[in-house]
Design goal:
GO terms for molecular function: transmembrane transporter activity. With 525 residues, this protein is mainly alpha-helical. It folds into four domains: 1-208, Growth Hormone, Chain: A, CATH 1.20.1250.20; 211-263; 271-437 and 494-517, MFS general substrate transporter like domains (Growth Hormone, Chain: A, Up-down Bundle), CATH 1.20.1250; 439-493, no CATH class. 74% of the residues lie in helices and 0% in strands. The chain contains 22 helices and no strands. It has helices spanning 11-36, 40-45, 53-78, 80-100, 104-130, 138-150, 152-167, 169-194, 210-229, 239-261, 275-304, 306-309, 313-318, 327-338, 343-362, 372-378, 384-388, 395-402, 408-424, 426-452, 458-469, 474-511.
């Protein structure tokens, strides 16, 4: 019967299997934001400067983006069940290797492979679970996994911060490794021995565009390294950065030329000729890059200012928790409404809410120097994170815009391409906002503070006098003033970064209206 599932399990076992595969999916999703809350600790433990901290975190996204793309190919080439267990095994292996690694660059390489294994596992978990449900239930299963994925910035940072705070950063990866082993054994027990049908390891000789894959992966890693390491290497005054840019650009151009001539390309370049697709392919990556960039920048600086703010890695992770307020109803509502009303309207409203969130957060009165009205509202900074939860509803309307007017075959290709771009550009968020914007604004604010906060300033004289009364000598007072200026400049730069992102969101809220949607083709099944 067409509505019968391919495989059958008792209801209790199906619930258990869904729970196990959900844990595996979440382990792949939560790894980067969880790591971001404590990335200063491994950078110090591995003997590198704090500026290297975000590289290990963001390189996971590069691997994950391509792993999500490779998952369906592994499914057809190796067989669905075999591919799942191999992906989980490699996921566990690389988690363990990251946990025990004592070399930074080796750990970086393992994180890239961990991302590829994690992305593949996430895709294969969904495909395997779909086999146990009839086709008419597939949209609900897909929405369920989408719901898990958009919870990433709510639960991931809290979990990572808690484990690091009480057990150490290596314990996070060892915990993940242990869960992979346990979940893999339980899933294999259910699928291989308790299923009503013995799993078929059906394989297909499927063509894969290896040349296109290698070219775009190489280009992606080159540009990701440029964004992450550019500030430390002094950008284009560095031969290393220049060579990366040249090799990455040549690889990208050759990839485009190669894909145009391919019958079964890795990415369908012709999709970029569709206005609706290209707008979605711009807005989705930029939006999610900013969401992760602001998150990683906020968490990094809260830890950097630990002496001034008293924020631990766990407390820094809790700063993102309020955005979960929107999760239970906004994501399913956006999935439902995007098929029935103009998705541009939904996307525009959500982007506007994100702009309001950034603008409000950018005027947070950390120093309590404004009027009572501002102080009353700004003291509840965590409440602005509720508005940040608007991002959870953006996936559905932007996907609806991307596939507008496309055939069923091209719709799948368009969705996969947007997922790859959206996931990959998360690697750019922390680098661009944390270095090109945040550090430049910090240097500007620090210079301005030094120029205005002089020794003849009444506030300066009062502050210096209070330090004298505490028994500090002139050298200690000078050191304290430098520390205050440095901390103050970081906070002001963080506010500047949020305000800049607010205007980007407002611009995107208008840009989404640029492509026209024909009314007859507006709604999608």
């Amino acid at each position: 019967m067409p509505l019968e599932p391919k495989k059958k399990l008792r209801q209790s076992l199906l619930i258990l299997l869904q729970g196990i595969l959900s844990i595996e999916f979440l382990l792949g999703t939560y790894s980067p934001p969880a790591y971001a809350t404590f990335n200063l600790y491994p950078s110090g433990d591995l003997g590198v400067s704090p500026s290297h901290a975000s590289w290990i975190s963001t390189i996971y996204f590069a691997g994950q983006a391509f792993g999500l793309f490779l998952g369906p190919w592994f499914d057809r080439f190796l067989g669905r069940v075999r591919a799942l267990f191999l992906a989980i095994s490699f996921f566990a292996l690389f988690d363990f290797l990251v946990a025990v690694s004592s070399d930074y660059y080796l750990s970086l390489f393992f994180r890239l492979l961990l991302g590829i294994a994690g992305g593949s596992t996430m895709t294969l978990c969904q495909l395997n679970l779909l086999d146990y449900y009839p086709i008419n239930r597939w949209p609900f299963i897909t929405a369920y996994f989408g719901f898990l994925q958009v919870s990433v910035f709510g639960f991931g940072p809290v979990l990572g911060g808690f484990i690091n705070e009480y057990f150490g950063w290596r314990a996070y990866f060892l915990t993940s490794f242990s869960l992979h082993v346990i979940c893999g054994l339980i899933a294999s027990w259910i699928i291989l021995f308790l299923s009503d049908q013995h799993p078929e390891h059906e394989t297909k000789d499927v063509y894969f565009d290896w040349v296109g894959f290698i070219l775009i992966l190489f280009a992606a890693l080159c540009f990701q390294t440029i964004v992450t390491r550019g500030q430390d290497e002094d950008w284009y005054n560095s031969t290393f950065i220049d060579l990366l840019f040249i090799f990455g650009s040549v690889s990208l151009v050759y990839f485009i030329v190669w894909e145009i001539g391919e019958k079964k390309p890795f990415i369908n370049i012709k999709l970029f000729l569709k206005p609706t697709f290209i707008i979605s392919a711009i807005i989705a990556p930029v939006t999610f890059a900013i969401v992760y960039g602001l998150f990683s920048t906020l968490v990094f600086n809260l830890q950097l200012l630990k002496n001034a703010t008293n924020f631990s890695s766990f407390q820094a992770g809790l700063a993102m928790a309020p955005l979960l307020f929107f999760l239970p109803f906004l994501y399913p509502s956006s999935v439902f409404l995007s098929q029935r009303i103009d998705p541009r309207l939904i996307a525009s409203i959500l982007l506007t809410l994100l702009g309001i969130f950034c603008y409000w957060t950018g005027y947070y009165d950390f120093f309590r120097k404004r009027a009572f009205f501002d102080q009353f509202f700004n003291q509840y900074i965590l409440l602005t994170q509720v508005l940040n939860g608007a991002y959870v509803g953006l996936v559905a309307p932007l996907n609806a815009i991307a596939i507008h007017g496309l055939s069923k075959k091209n719709q799948e290709s368009a969705i996969n391409s947007v997922i790859l771009l959206r996931t990959y550009f998360l690697t750019w968020g922390g680098g661009l906002l944390g270095t090109m914007v945040m550090e430049h604004r910090r240097d500007f604010q620090q210079t301005r503070l030094v120029e205005t906060f002089s020794g003849q300033n009444p506030e300066s004289m009062q502050f210096i006098s209070s330090l004298h009364q505490l028994g500090l000598n002139d050298l200690q007072i000078h050191s304290k003033l430098v520390e205050q200026a440095a901390n103050h400049s970081v906070i002001l730069a963080l506010n500047d970064t949020y305000r800049l992102c607010s205007w980007i969101y407002f611009f995107l809220a208008l840009l989404v209206w640029l492509p026209s949607l024909k009314k007859a083709e507006r709604y999608f099944s």
